[in-house]
Amino acid sequence: MRHRVAGFKLRRDPSARKAVLRNLVTSVIEHERIITTVAKAKAARPLVEKMVTLAKADTLHTRRQAASFLMTRDAVKKLFDKVGSRFGQRNGGYTRITHLGPRKGDGAEQVMLELVGSELVKRAADRAKRKEEKLKAIREGAEGGGEEQK
Predict the structure, then answer these.
(1) What is the spatial distance between Cα 75 and Cα 29, in angstroms, rounded to a whole number?
(2) Which helix (H) or strand (E) holds 100?
(3) Using one digit for the tens of pLDDT, what is the confidence trace for 12-43?
(4) Which of 18, 29, 60, 91 is in the most buried spot, having the most CB atoms within 10 Å?
């Protein structure tokens, strides 16, 4: 029986499991979305939520707690500077798991674990990039057109 047994084993010994989960959480914070298997995403989700909750408090103690778990300083900086402020008014539910289908090699079910609202950030960045490219093309077209007429 599995009474009062919590967590996921992920077919790994405890140290390897902790390393995998720490790396997954760090990647989610750095890239705002990752593609992984269902079991790993379900195991990492509560840990990502805990990190965002720490970031909302933003004290020296919570920074040190996050730094002891996350793998890179850049992830800690992004967590407290951007992610924590983005979810300041939200009470939980910071992540989303979206099913993508089976993986080509072994047929494992793939999911995307992402921070809620990251699609808005990505879309805004893409829109800004496209707008910049259009303006650049218009400027080059205006400059190039003037030279051809001479």
Answers:
(1) 6
(2) strand 95-102
(3) 999 999 999 999 999 999 999 999 999 999 99
(4) 29
Q: What is the pLDDT of residue 102?
A: 96
Q: 127, 126, 98, 122: which is closest to 110 by C-alpha?
A: 98
Return the bridge partners of 111, or none: 36, 99
The one-letter amino acid code at 84 reads: G
Torsion from C-alpha of 20, 22, 28, 34, nearest 10 degrees:
0
Q: What pLDDT score was predicted for residue 21?
A: 97
In the predicted model, residues of the chain with pLDDT beneath 70 are 119-122, 144-150
Q: Where are the alpha helices (DSSP H) in 7-89?
A: 14-31, 38-57, 60-69, 73-78, 84-86
- Sheet containing 109-115: order of strands: 33-37, 109-115, 95-102
Q: How far is CA 49 from CA 1, 126, 147, in A?
A: 29, 26, 57
pLDDT recorded at residue 135: 87
Structure token digits, residue 69? 């778990």
From 38, 24, 29, select the one nearest 75 (Cα to Cα).
29
- Residue 121 is predicted with a pLDDT of 66
